[in-house]
Amino acid sequence: MGRRNSTHVSDFILMGLTDSEEIQLVLFTLFLLIYLITVLLNAGMMLIIHLDLQLHTPMYFFLSHLSFLDLSYSTVITPKTLQNLLTSTKYISYLNCFTQMNCFIFLGATECFLLSSMAYDRYVAICNPLHYPVVMSTRRCCSLVFGSYFIGFMGSFVNVLCMSRLDFCDSNIIHHFFCETPPILALSCTDTQDIEITISIFAGSTLVVSLITISVSYVSILSTILKITSTSGKRKAFSTCASHLLGVTIFYSTLVFTYLKPSKYYSLRKDQVASVFYTIVIPMLNPLLYSLQNKEVKKALIRVTQKGKSSKHKIRLKLNF
Questions:
Q1: Taking the alpha carbons of 229, 235, 240, 241 in that order, is the dihedral positive or negative?
Q2: What are 117-152's pLDDT values in tens digits?
Q3: Taking each helix axis from N to C terminus, what angle separates 282-292 and 58-86, rounded to the nearest 10 degrees?
Q4: Could you give the CA distance from residue 125 to residue 159 in angstroms, rounded to a whole number?
Q5: How many CA atoms lie within 13 A of 207 on its CB side?
Q6: Does pTM top 0.85 for this prediction?
Q7: What are the residues facing 174 on neighbouring strands?
Q8: 74-83 tens-digit pLDDT
C-alpha cells in the first residue's frame, strides 16, 4: 500500500477528450471562442452592475457574485484545457492538479448555495413583496453570500483532508481533461472506500440541501403566481424568476447526471461531455440567460454607455479650454 501522505509521482498526464489532432483543433477553436465570450459577458455583467446605481439591489448583488463564480470557474479549467489541446505533452504538476481540483470544488459548492440564495430572494420578492426591503436587507444579503462561500470552502477543505491521505504508486494517467476527484481516486494505490464515502456524503448533501431549498422556494412561488387573477400579473411575476429557474435547471441536471447516478451507469465519454457542459459552456450561458431577457440590464447598459460618452465629451471640452 505504501506509506500515507507520500507520493511516488510528481505530475499527472491529462489524456483529454480525444486523440485526433483534427478534432483537437476544432475543440481548441470552439473552447477558445466560448472562453472569450464567457470572460466578456461575465466581466461585463459585473461592471454594469457596479457602475449602474439602479442595479444595486439584492437580485443583482447575487447576480454579480454568480458572474464572478462563473468567470473563476471557467478560468480554473479552460486555459489548461486549451493548452493541452495544442501540445503533445499534457503534463500537469501534482500541486497544480490538486489546486485545480480544490478550486473547482470550492467554486461548484459555492455556486450551488448562491443559486439557493437567489431562489430565496425571488421567493421573498414574489410571495412577500411588501416586506422585501426589510427581509432582503444588505446585512441579510451579505450573510447569504458569505455563507455560500463558507460552505464552498468547507467542501474544498474536506476534499483536501481526504485526498492528502492518498498514495500514487504506479500510473499517473488521468482519463479526463481536468483534475476531477473520481479519476484521481481511481489512480490511487490506497484503499479509497472511506474517502469516497466521506466525499460522496458531503457532495450529495450539498446538492440535496441546495436543491430542496430551491424546490421549496419555487413551489411557493408557483402557488403564489397561480393565485394572481390577471394574466399580465402572472406574466410579470413569472418573468422575474424565469431566467433563474432555467439556469438552475441546466446547472443541476448536469451535476445530478454526473454525480448522483448509480455507478453501474458510469460512462467515461458521457461524463466528459457533461463535464464540458458545466465547466465550459454553462459559465457562458448564465450571463446570456440573465441579460438577454432582462430589460433592466439592457437599460443599464444604455445608461452606462451614454454616461461614458458624456464623460468623454466633458473631458474633450476641458482639454479644448
A1: positive
A2: 999 999 999 999 899 999 999 999 999 999 999 999
A3: 150
A4: 36
A5: 18
A6: yes
A7: 14
A8: 999 999 999 9
